[in-house]
Amino acid sequence: MDRKEWPLWEVFIRAKGGLDHKHCGSVHAPDAKMALQNARDVYTRRQEGVSIWVVRADQIHASDPDAKPELFDPAEDKIYRHPTFYRLPDEVNHM
Amino acid sequence: MPATTAAGAAHLEYVLRLGDSALILGQRLSEWCGHGPVIEEDIALTNAALDLLGQARLLLTHAGALEGRGRDEDSLAFLRQENEYRNLTICELPNADFGRTILRNFLFAAFQLPLWEALASSSDSQLAAIAGKSAKETRYQLGHAADWTVRLGDGTDESHARMQRALDDLWPYTAEFFAPNAVDTAVEAAGIGPAWSALAPAWEREVLPVLEAATLAVPARTPFLSRGKEGRHSEHLGHLLAEMQYLQRAYPGAKW
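Output (structure tokens, whole complex):
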């Protein structure tokens, strides 16, 4: 089989119950079943996880890196969006 | 039970069979390291080799204790002669191509799994503990190998032809799994483990549906019987041992 035919899958691992799945890398595989198998063999050899998600890389839509200025720079001077300007009662310790 | 009694000797033989089969197949699979068809399968085969090596370490350590002559896992693994190994012959056969390697893994894992499950209730508590840990590893390896067996058997004309040839060549060696033997009788009587002949139905339940899904024709049984578990090996084991034992033979007692 021509390995170039194997699509790329992005791999997300949940390190332990209650945590999010985090992107950790990618594998090549002809279908989802084998992508999960390959992800298990490549990315959980050292007890990294308890759950795996895989998703075809071509199913992920990414923002345009060239659009970074208009997408993200405008947030730079809008510091008031962080809820850090409220005066909290002393009883509230852990905000 | 000391290895000097007949029952003790059978117990030791039985554990060596398990340990040596895992050791020798683990060594074979490690030959794939850096040569897998894709990086993912390269790592998968190395993982399988490490699972087997881990099983071999536990089993050979236990065999050394049963033997009671002060031999540890390393002296059993690296300092015995060819005819002292008790592995199934199928484990020592060359890997050949990826399909044949996978098919052998499948046929062997399908034998290991019911064996581990039966050994979980062994009267030998150490063996039962090893079986409990190993069953999980084998269950994964069996799934991985079965999956590939179907993909390749029911794949292209070329992959199907290669898998059928591999099955025709490997199938006769599976008769050894179940060949009755005096060691089995003694071990079964002592509640240490099942006679391997009793595992044939469970093995077939695992193997036959996968071969059918893989569109592979199951060869007829022949009188051929390999005898690796009695220490009578094919011409391939000596070469494997020459490589595996090289370091301990060239630098006795070397540690790292």
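The first helix of chain B runs from residue 6 to 30.
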